[in-house]
Design goal:
CATH superfamily of the largest domain: NAD(P)-binding Rossmann-like Domain
CATH architecture of the largest domain: 3-Layer(aba) Sandwich
Bound molecules: nicotinamide-adenine-dinucleotide
Structural class: alpha/beta
Shape: globular
Number of domains: 2
Strand order of the largest sheet: 3-2-1-4-5-6-7
C-alpha cells in the first residue's frame, strides 16, 4: 500500500499534545511537510523543533483554532512554508472538554466548545477548499469521537460539537467529491492522551482511589478490548486516509473504539 506523502503539506490543529502531536509525527514520518498549530504557542514550536531534529520538515504556529483571524494567519504561514505553496491535508483536531449536567452547563462554555470544535473546522475547511479544488486534490480529516455518534451524560457541548462535525464532514465530502477532495471523520473511543488522563485523574481524586482503579472499574467494563487505545493507532489511520490508497473513502465517520459501540 502506498502511504508516501512526500511533496504534500499537512496542517494539524491541537498538535502540541496527544492525538494531534501523534498525527503530525506520523504524517511527517510518511514524508509530509507538517504545520503544527496549537493555542500553546511555545509548546508547539518546541514539538516542531523535535520533528526537525528527526529530519522532518515541520513548522510550529501558535494560535486559537476558534479564531477566524488566527486560522487565516495559520493558512498563510502554511502556504508560505509549503514547498509548492499548497496545503494538501488538514486535520481538524483541536479540542477540549467540559463535563456538567445540562442545568449547570454555562452557556458561555457551551458556545466556546462549539466555536472551537465545530465552527473552527468549518472555517479552516472554508479557507483551504479553494486551493484544494484548484489543485484537484485534498484530504480533510475531522477528529470526532464515539460521542459524535452516541450521547454521553454530562457532555452536552462536546457531543453536540462532535455530532455536528460529522454533518459538516458529509457536506464537505459531497462538495469536494468532484474535485479530488476527500473529507472524513474519525470517531475514537478512549485514547491514552493528557485530555483523558486528566479526566480519569479527576474521577480518581473524587473517589479517593488510584487512577488504575478507575480504569479497571469504570473504563474497562465499557471497552470490550479492556484497554485505552494508543495515539499511534489513530494516527496511522489518519495517515492512511490522507494517502492515495484511501482516495475512494469520503464522507465517512470511521469508528476506532476497541469495540465500545459494538455492544
Ligand atoms: N483522547 C480521547 O480519548 C479522544 C477520543 C475521541 C476524540 N478525541 C478528540 O481528539 C482531539 C484531541 O484530543 P486529545 O485527547 O489529544 O487532547 P489533548 O488535550 O491531549 O490535546 C488537545 C490539544 O488541543 C489544544 N487546544 C485546546 N484548545 C485550543 C484552541 N482553542 N486552539 C488551538 N488549540 C487548542 C491543546 O492545547 C492541546 O494541545 C480532540 O478533538 C478530542 O475531542 C479524543
Amino acid at each position: 500500500m502506498n502511504m508516501d506523502l512526500s511533496g504534500r503539506t499537512a496542517v494539524v490543529t491541537g498538535a502540541a499534545s496527544g492525538l494531534g502531536l501523534a498525527i503530525a509525527q506520523t504524517l511527517g514520518r510518511a514524508g509530509a511537510q507538517v504545520v503544527l498549530s496549537d493555542l500553546q504557542g511555545e509548546a508547539v514550536a518546541e514539538r516542531a523543533l523535535e520533528l526537525q531534529r528527526e529530519g522532518i520538515s515541520a513548522l510550529g504556529v501558535g494560535g486559537d483554532a476558534a479564531s477566524e483571524h488566527d486560522l487565516t494567519e495559520l493558512v498563510r504561514a502554511a502556504q508560505a512554508f509549503s514547498a509548492n505553496g499548497g496545503i494538501e491535508m488538514v486535520v481538524n483536531n483541536a479540542g477540549t472538554q467540559h463535563v456538567a449536567n445540562l442545568e449547570d452547563f454555562p452557556v458561555s462554555k457551551f458556545r466556546q466548545i462549539i466555536d472551537l470544535m465545530l465552527i473552527g473546522p468549518f472555517m479552516l475547511t472554508k479557507l483551504v477548499f479553494p486551493g484544494m479544488k484548484e489543485r484537484g486534490h485534498g484530504r480533510i480529516v475531522n477528529m470526532s469521537s464515539i460521542n459524535g455518534l452516541v450521547g454521553f451524560a454530562g457532555k452536552s457541548a462536546y457531543n453536540s460539537a462532535k455530532h455536528g462535525l460529522i454533518g459538516l464532514t458529509q457536506v464537505a465530502a459531497l462538495e469536494g467529491a468532484e474535485h479530488g477532495i476527500t473529507v472524513n471523520a474519525i470517531c475514537p473511543g478512549y485514547v491514552d492522551t493528557p485530555l483523558v488522563r486528566n479526566q480519569l485523574q479527576d474521577l480518581a481524586d473524587n473517589r479517593g482511589v488510584p487512577l488504575e482503579s478507575v480504569l479497571e472499574e469504570v473504563i474497562y467494563p465499557l471497552v470490550p478490548q479492556k484497554r485505552l487505545l494508543s495515539t499511534d493507532e489513530i494516527a496511522d489511520y489518519v495517515t492512511f486516509l490522507c494517502s492515495d490508497a484511501a482516495r475512494g473513502i469520503t464522507g465517512q465517520a470511521v469508528v476506532i473504539d476497541g469495540g465500545y459501540l459494538a455492544q
